[in-house]
Specification:
There is one protein chain. The chain is α/β, with parallel strands linked by helices and 807 residues long. The protein folds into five domains: 287 residues, Alpha-Beta Barrel (TIM Barrel), CATH 3.20.20.300; 189 residues, 3-Layer(aba) Sandwich (Rossmann fold); 79 residues, no CATH class; 118 residues, Sandwich (Immunoglobulin-like), CATH 2.60.40; 97 residues, no CATH class. 33% of the residues lie in helices and 17% in strands. It is built from 24 helices and 26 strands. Helix 11 crosses helix 16. The protein is globular, with a radius of gyration of 27 Å.
Amino acid sequence: MKHRDIIDKMTLEEKAAFLSGKNVWQTRDYSRLGLPSIFCSDGPHGIRKQAGAGDHLGLNASLPATCFPTAATVANSWDERLGEELGEALGEEAATQEVNVLLGPGLNMKRSPLCGRNFEYFSEDPYLAGKMAAAYVKGIQSQGVYACPKHFAVNSQELRRMAMNSVLDERTLREIYLTGFEIAVKEGKAKSIMTSYNEINGTYANENKHLLQEILRKEWGFDGIVITDWGASNDHAAGVAAGSNLEMPAPGLDSAREILQAIKEKTLTEEELDACVDGLLDAVLTLSENAKGKKRTFPETAHHDLARRAAEESAVLLKNTDEILPLKAGCKVAVIGDFAVEPRYQGAGSSMVNPTYLETIEKVIGNYDLQVAGINRGYKRTGEADEAMKKEALDLAAAADIVLYCFGLDELSESEGMDRSHMRIPQNQIELLQSIVQVNENVVGLLSAGASIEMPWHYCCKAILHGYLTGQAGASAMLNILTGKVNPSGRLSETYPLRYEDTSAFRHFPSTQRNSEYRESIYIGYRYYDTSKVRVQYPFGYGLSYTTFMYSELKVDADGATFTLTNTGKMDGAEVVQLYVGLPNAIVFRPEKELKGFRKVFLKSGESKEVRIDFDDKTFRYWNVKTNGWEVEEGIYQIMVGASVADIRLEGKLQVSGTTDRYPYNPAKLPYYYTGIVQQISDEEFEELLGHPIPSGKWSGDLGINDAICQMYYAKSGLARVIYKVLTTMKKKSEEKGKPDLNILFIYNMPFRGIAKMTGGMVSMEMVEGMVTVVNGHFLKGMKKIIGGFFRNQKANKAYEAKLAEK
């Protein structure tokens, strides 16, 4: 224990209170002990430190900061060095704003394209996500600020995210949903980590000893602090017993009293409490020391330029018929689309950044050697038709050589707190595109979206340049690529299926009941499409360039693969080379191939380089549920190098010795897992995979404190059902306006316990239990508990505050 001297000076009440936030963003400070507060802030792609009173969802304005491209965008760069540079810039800006813990990056797996927060996450592949996250973490922490990878773990849907139970087998947990975090912790040396809202196999992430103690601390050697997502604490004492150091945001002293009661009842030991206090003390003292002497300004222009370069390296050229791109100098272009005037450059929710400067296509296109015939919004981003606007756009399109059509997902389509209901771009945008191509076939589509979409309209565009969510400097980045100043080098970090119905989790996402069943197991993203031979629009790892590359001379040895890469085109450019590994006729079921390494290689026209990709401890391993450990299956492995999962250029073989004596599965009992055809896994086969019966996740009978407020649909109380209807109406009205009301979404999906955890001590858990009693039809009994609980809570808070002030 590092800080026994301080802990011995702390009262039990001080220690218990120390493990919860004093307000929305800060930890408690104790002046008598010389302990300052530390400040946490959202910041996966830019600092969101609020100027006034803090609120979790960002309704109050935040200080200006550089809005970098989102994680989903930068993952398309496949460039760890770029990720580290972005991390350094984020850490520098955090330090200038006196932020000590930056809440990011987000690296949850993109299990389904419909997750509303996919724009904040890197990839459908854990290896790529982990490597990019580790790069961000290294960069952020080089500036004396802690990074906080999130959300740990198996957090794949926004709908009722605080009241969901993720049901999955241990192998899927380890190989898919924890590997990225493992890399961020082991290689990035993350000093803090954020627990997710959901349960994992029946135990909340924040009080899951298997997750936080056995895996995170003992196996991975994590020595930092565990922080709850805002409102993610369920049982605070159980969280402390599991090794969770900080409950956020500001639950008030009722949470501290939970700890005191648990110690009194011997369900929590003082040693366990001291261990959590010691970890948080170490973070507070280290971060406070790191913050001394930091400058209070950052180079805005340099960071804007970095944001542009990140957008350039991450944009993906999906299509380029007849080499319409790059645009010829002086060509006459019509710019059409609302996004050209008011860009979609970041997602909605707690990650919203107030940019230092925002470029638009409309503002910057005049800086390029193009003849601009005109700029027209063309469509309303809220979705309604406007015939007059459409006619103006068509007239403009007919008068130009080339149409630059700016379109994509609107704000309502991608937001924290809600999942998408489909994968389509708003229909009015597509109808306009289909009309434009009738008057001008030379259409270049400029896409803005933070997640994969269905693209049945792709034939309307001769070229498609996908910028994802490009950050504040995206306009010039896209125009630099369009005009050939920059050669596109982004590659997709997620698959684009032909239609949503083709996805592996289609029948189980989002969950309609309390359980989210991960029946598809390890087959997410390309692991499913590739293994099951499902046709896709664009495969994982795909992207075009203005030049061409040749792969040759593959040599495979026990430690890695070496090959020669040559730029055979007329333009300098970068290629993302990808290493995949597979084991034909494996005894343990597995995907056809899996990403096990990658490099981004820049070559001048005509240049060749020898490229080496080393194997590591993750290249051949799988999780054996029988031996409860990582194992290697013996066999002759295929070592594949290519430009995408579907474009393998070189293949070799390697005999690998195994470690497996006890094989985990009986193939006869898991027939569909062995074929990868997992859309309709039966209860029996899923139970065989789990090793136990599927837990019931149905809502029945009375609601409890861990049920979501939107479940008042089932309430026995007429008043509760009226409140549900009012909330639902408010939610629908906000959606009709085209921009989500994040407060309504948060309340709608929040469990009742969140009322106690998110109100700064005004509401106690006793009062919440009274509210649930009312909801379940016992009005007088529940109101008695609410009113009595209110006065008891106020009295107990005053008494606790007095004890804290005694010394």
